[in-house]
Predict the structure.
Amino acid sequence: MNATQNTIPLKESLLGLYHQHLQAIEGLSSHKLIHLRQKALHEFERIGFPTSKLENWRFTDISQILSQNFEFDFRNQSRPFDLKEIFTCEVYDLDTYSLTLLNGWFVYQHTPLFKFDNGVIIGSLAKAMEEFPEIVEKYLGSAASTPNAAFAALNTAFMQDGLFVYVPKGVTVEKPIQLVNIVNSQVPLFLQPRSLVVAEAGSSVTLVHCDHALTHTPSVTNTVLEVFLHPEAQVDHYKVQNKGKSSALFTNTYFHLYEGSKVSSCIMTLNGGFTRNSVEINLLGTQSQANLKGLYLADRSQFVDNQVQINHSAPGCYSNQLFKGILDDQAKAVFSGRINVQRDAQKTQAYQNNKNLLLSEEAKINSQPHLEIYADDVKCSHGATIGQLEPNAMFYLRSRGISEKTARQLMMLAFADEVVKEISIEPLKQKIGGMVEKRLKGELSICDQCVLHCKDNSPATFNIDMNKL
Amino acid sequence: MLKIKDLSVSINDKNILKGFNLEVRAGEVHAIMGPNGTGKSTLAAVIAGRDTFDIEQGEITYLGKNLTDMSPELRAREGIFLGFQYPVEIPGVSMASFMRAALNEKRKHFGQNPLSGGEFLKLMEEKKNLVEIHSNLTNRSVNEGFSGGEKKKNEIFQMALLEPRLAILDETDSGLDIDALKVVANGVNKLRSPENATIIITHYQRLLDFIIPDYVHVLFDGRIVKSGGKELALELENKGYEWVKNEVNGAMTTLKA
């Protein structure tokens, strides 16, 4: 059952669609989940889509994206199939538990939900809602509940499927869990995948989350991921994105950290027409730590927005943000890093850095640090730099016989490497490092991984033009 | 090998070199000395191809080719090497990938096959031993966190690897203790051959105790005002630059009279 939105504004259309497809959306949801959905729908109805009048959206214009007509998949139309028929991922030959969402729905060959002997559960969130309602209901929506977050509320109202991971106390999941989110559609889709990860005390798990589009049809993906880290748990999270220029991606990621837990998150935006990554980290337990790294490479008219909110609510916590970007042509980027240190969060350490390389006159970055500190015994710092390639270093490289083009590539790779080198899984570091290198050399297109080869459209290539400076 | 004729160079409309002349033949070592701010480093940078300077007049030919039309990378591939006074730190670029890229660009220029990773590492070890560098350079970023001495030794190491025809060492001795100075000098001496030439730019005579020059030139106010053999360096050390200045100014006065 596909539902097409008409010429009425998207907000009204969405509200109408909810009621029209009540049975499909609410389906077998428990009372608790139905209540959660309806509350979120009311919140969305109250605030609507954000406009540039809001501080968080000052430099981010989504009116164009929202003016398109979209279709919504309220029922799973995908059938069990072998993913390799249509898709191989650049980071695929890693030894991972690989899971796939196609147009927002879980696809699988054997079972939608793996239950391991040690208690680990990995699979479809829709299935987990049925089989493990006590876990799902306890957590789902409790992190993504910040007021005035329109996209998160919208997702909560409409969520259908996504990744579910449960790691019991003290268990280490040896292999990374990889979620590949694929959009493959000839009609413009509006997707809202939802994922939930619960890491019990002392457990550890690595998540690799890839977003890809296989066609050039416009699409909007509005995804929410909630991650809960109980005391001493450790979660490594990697987000890699490689989509076409007609895709819009809103990622809303929430981490809740209890005593002594640690999260490291790495957000790589390699290609995409419009990307907004929102990350909210709540340091709720003492001595919890968050390490957040980001890299964004944009050219042509691409737009990348990284919004980080870190709330230090408990004493002795640590947070560090490093976001780096390379922008060419008319590309625009926004970085907003908010650190909020609450009154009782003494001995807080919170650092933030945003560094940008602009390769053209028209490329633009808006970098905004926001620090709100209500405790008196804290160490906080923030910095933002915007620059061109260092001429002394360029001359040094060229004076050894290295061409101007190669020198630029070396310098840009070096710039990006500060983020890439932090990836702690060696094969993943190699893979992502390789993708970044290909991207900077103009060799990475979204068609690289795709066997469809888009015969109707000419394949889109995205390259940073090295011949500018 | 290198001929510089009547070269005038300015930066932001300020004249630095004013009718500079020099000829260097294969097998020779030239020392260019002079007080600060007389144009020594400008000369080195202009030969290497730095484009922040304007060449007002004059010509530079190298192995019969007009150098001023060539990009810095082309000059390097043709065998010109500049040892930097202030080697640049480039975090994230490893010494190994830097030097391998440089060497392979040069090999490509001469129609040779690129060196494989293994071959390159072997050569790198060989050259490290030649110039007595014992620190692990392979995985370190270019000059990042290197001490002053290490940076200068690293310049000599790069020179050993790239085997230039014409090396210009810009104040390579500055900031070095006596042990590092000896390492640098030994490196230069080992690489000396009848086919190549070296220009040593220095403020002090000290380095010339270890690298014996064939010619010594004194640069003053953008021109060479005095040339001689290695004994000129000693004379300068004893009498100081004031001596040259006075001589030049005296000559000017005489000329006016």
